[in-house]
Amino acid sequence: GKSEEAVAYAKTLPESTQFELYYNRACAAIELGELRSAKLLLDAALKSCRESLSTDEFTEEEIEVELGVLTAQAAYVDQQRGDTEAASQAYEALFSFKTELEPAVAAVAANNIVALRGGERDLFDSWKKCRANFAENVTRKLTPTQRRAFLFNGALLSMHMSRTQQCKELLATLNEEFPQSADTAIIQAATAMRAKQQAAAEQILAAAAERTNDPRPALTIAQLQLQAKQPELAAKTLEGIEALRSKPAMI
After folding, report:
1. Helix orientation angle between 198-211 and 216-227, rounded to the nearest 10 degrees
2. In angstroms, how far apart are the furthest CA atoms of the chain?
3. What are the distances in angstroms from CA 37 to CA 23, 51, 73, 112, 185?
4. Model confidence at 109: pLDDT above 60
5. Could you give the 3-state DSSP secondary structure of residue 241?
6. What's the pLDDT band for 1 if we cut at 50, 70, 90?
7. Residue 66: which of 51, 78, 50 has the closest Cα?
8. Which long-range contacts (CB under 8 A, 24 or more apart) does 214-222 make?
9. CA distance 208 to 5
10. Are 49 and 67 within 8 A, CB to CB?
11. Per-residue pLDDT, 127
12. Cβ distance 185 to 162 under 8 Å?
């Protein structure tokens, strides 16, 4: 398979570059959705880097700190593959060294563990982790994708905590920085549903579906219609999503 080929090729390179190669190829695999390959490559990166640092007489704690970015990425892959126990253990291990980690690595781990817990668990502790991600020293090191995810999760968490004003402020920032994203509409619709205003939720989502290429608003409308026992409307909504029309799950 491709992952085995990548590992074999990496072994032909100088020792000092092996773990960087594994990591870079793992990141590429994640982008392509090849999570099994990514996991194999990250495991190889962790092993290679740990062996290299051990020979340089790093302490065990120093090694764990240096491995932080690899550990965080491996935990994310575990999370996406459904191994939530392994992901949670890895994130918690990272937090025992939080003050020594790169701020961006700590922020990504915090964001991912908040997402892992879901909307209703450990809300106060999740908010503490989430709030730290909005510090200026963290924000300036984030990619746009990371920044968008942090704002979305912060707003979602605020909604679950019934912190209405806080949620509105984060959504305003999200909409200002990412006006083409459907994220704001999705949370606004969720807020409307919490207030039992399905018609308003569907209007918000329909507007987002028209102005973006994101299929999530239309899929959410279909889900709401199914919950309201309107299968014919849901089927019509699904048929209108061109980007997913030929997907096996849609058929």
Report:
1. 160
2. 66
3. 11, 21, 13, 21, 34
4. yes
5. coil
6. low
7. 50
8. 214/181, 214/182, 215/241, 215/243, 215/244, 216/182, 216/186, 217/182, 217/185, 217/186, 217/189, 219/244, 220/186, 220/189
9. 43
10. yes
11. 83
12. no
| Nearest-angstrom CA–CA distance, 159 and 176 | 19
Cα 44 from Cα 27, distance rounded (Å):
13
Tokens of 32: 């392509």
C-alpha 122/C-alpha 204 separation (Å) is: 29
- Structure pTM? 0.69
Structure tokens at 175: 């909409």
Q: Could you tell me if 154 and 174 are in contact, meaning their C-beta atoms sit under 8 angstroms apart? A: no
Of the candidates 108, 113, 107, the residue with the CA atom closest to the CA atom of residue 91: 113
DSSP state of 34: -
pLDDT for 217 equals 93
191 pLDDT band, cuts 50/70/90, is very high
Is the pLDDT assigned to residue 218 strictly greater than 80?
A: yes
Q: Per the structure block, which two tokens stand in for 42?
A: 């990250």
DSSP state of 13: S
- pLDDT tens figures, 202-214: 999 999 999 888 9
